[in-house]
Automatic annotation (TrEMBL):
Binding site residues for CTP: 98, 108, 126-129, 145, 159, 163
Protein name according to UniProt: Coenzyme A biosynthesis bifunctional protein CoaBC
Entry cofactors: Mg(2+); FMN
Reactions performed catalytically: N-[(R)-4-phosphopantothenoyl]-L-cysteine + H(+) = (R)-4'-phosphopantetheine + CO2; (R)-4'-phosphopantothenate + L-cysteine + CTP = N-[(R)-4-phosphopantothenoyl]-L-cysteine + CMP + diphosphate + H(+)
DNA/pantothenate metabolism flavoprotein C-terminal domain boundaries: 6-214
Cofactor detail note: Binds 1 FMN per subunit.
UniProt-annotated stretches for the region Phosphopantothenate--cysteine ligase: 11-221
GO cellular component annotations of the record: phosphopantothenoylcysteine decarboxylase complex
Residues of the full protein shown: 194 to 414 of 414
E.C. numbers: 4.1.1.36, 6.3.2.5
């Protein structure tokens, strides 16, 4: 309905980990469950937005009213994100693998009997958030996440500038946030830091989407 806060808006969201192949049966990944990103996609859809959710490999159902694009690697995620542009706002929640193997093996790597492990040569993945931050089709509002285990606010502030984002949602993952249902976040913007109490990921999502709707409404349509 036209009276919902995000009616007529396109919101682009990434969520989950990426998997970077080592060989046909092995990959590099991380502990992201995708829960927070999926909760944000659900909240955006409830708020009336058209939602594109680019999801890494996760075991989660697609939220109602969300257009889901499944990907595996960081490079696939970047391609899917760029294909989904333009968007009014992009919220990059995915825990993208920083590195991939320089050259994934076509066949399963074998122990060769020498006792020497197979060398793993890594190369850096594209930074999807930073790419959007400097894109010709940069969304009007660009939000990144920062999972940190220490100096959470300091690292988030540095990340804002480096990535060209408007907001960084920083969370302390030194506890059991990853895979858990609750999250305590700080919203770092050019104007300062807004610290929210620990709450369910679904409530973080609703509150963040409310803030996104408010920010978009105060800019031009
Ligand atoms: O640099 P760091 O990985 O801590 O930054 C986290 C933020 O950047 C998140 O919003 C994440 O989705 C995004 N990111 C990305 N592409 C990468 C690495 C991180 O979009 N290759």
């Amino acid at each position: 309905p036209a009276d919902l806060p995000l009616a007529g808006r396109h919101i682009l969201i990434t969520a989950g980990p990426t998997h970077e192949p080592i060989d046909p049966v092995r990959f590099i990944a991380n502990r992201s469950s995708g829960k927070q990103g999926f909760a944000i996609a659900a909240a955006a859809a409830r708020a009336g937005a058209r939602v594109s959710l680019v999801a890494g490999p996760v075991h989660l159902p697609t939220p109602a009213g969300v257009d889901r694009i499944d990907v595996e690697t960081a490079r696939e995620m970047l391609a899917a994100v760029e294909a989904a542009l333009p968007a009014d706002a992009a919220i990059m929640v995915a825990a993208v693998a920083d590195w991939r193997t320089a050259d994934a093996a076509g066949q399963k790597l074998k122990k060769d009997g020498s006792g020497q492990p197979a060398p793993l040569v890594l190369t850096e993945n594209p930074d999807i958030l930073a790419t959007l931050g400097h894109h010709v089709q940069r969304p009007a509002l660009l939000v990144g996440f920062a999972a940190e285990t220490e100096k959470v606010a300091d690292h988030a502030r540095a990340k804002l500038a480096r990535k060209g984002a408007d907001w960084i949602v920083a969370n302390d993952v030194s506890g059991d946030v990853m895979g858990g249902d609750a999250n305590a976040v700080h919203i770092v913007t050019a104007d300062g830091i807004d610290t929210w109490p620990s709450m369910a990921k679904a409530d973080v999502a609703d509150r963040l989407i409310e803030k996104v709707a408010h920010a978009l409404a105060s800019r031009s349509h």
